[in-house]
Structure of Coenzyme A biosynthesis bifunctional protein CoaBC:
Amino acid sequence: TSAPSENTPLQGQHWMITAGPTMEAIDPVRFISNHSSGKMGYALANAAAKLGAKVTLISGPVPLEAPKNITTVKILSALDMLAACRQISHENQVDVFIGAAAVADFRIQDIATQKMKKQSNTDEMQLNLIKNPDIIATVVAESMAKFVVGFAAETQNVIAYAQDKLAKKGLDLIVANDVSRKDIGFNQDQNEVTVVGKNTTWSPEKADKTELASLLVQFIRQQNQ
Ligand code: CTP
Ligand code: CA
């Protein structure tokens, strides 16, 4: 690798970014998931690559094209996403990790190996769920990356909850996202966020996710110098 230049300030750095939802199987034909579009994570991956970073994108199932010049690892479940993070961090020194994925908080405790059948003696149905590992907290705990950035999806007390998550997970920065707003965030092309660090808060204007991603990548670069 050559020395970083003005156009490629991230040359020589490796960024690992998670994106999209995870999909937790119930049986061979059913699953639990969420509405994450993956757009923010993919935009961040593209923005970092544009500035010269080597990028590994770990993506849940989304109908987005894998970006050029980016190694994309497709996974389904949270457990698979964590395994992919561990493998990539073992093989590479990761400078920046961004957890943009909407990881399912719970998975099915016992995935049925055959399609589940309706029972005729009851109208009710219970599924036992078990907590998934916290991927980003594990990235911090196992020192998988030097600088760790999370997202916080909130519908109320956005900044306060984001600050809690920053501290609890041991993150360097957290990008707080108000997912109660229909005009931004989940499944939208635009987003408006507040970036919270231990001693910083920064609120860029509402923008297209591609533009916002580029601003966020530059901000992360400044903070991690
Ligand atoms: N996250 C993760 N692994 C999980 C859950 C969340 O890595 N099992 C990451 C997300 O990728 C995000 C951050 O943690 O970067 C915050 O996710 P969020 O869902 O907002 O917070 P949770 O810690 O799951 O708390 P809650 O959903 O209860 O608000
Ligand atoms: Ca969650």
Notes: Residues 105 surround calcium ion (ligand 2) (CB under 6 Å). The mean pLDDT is 95. The chain has one domain: 14-107+128-223.
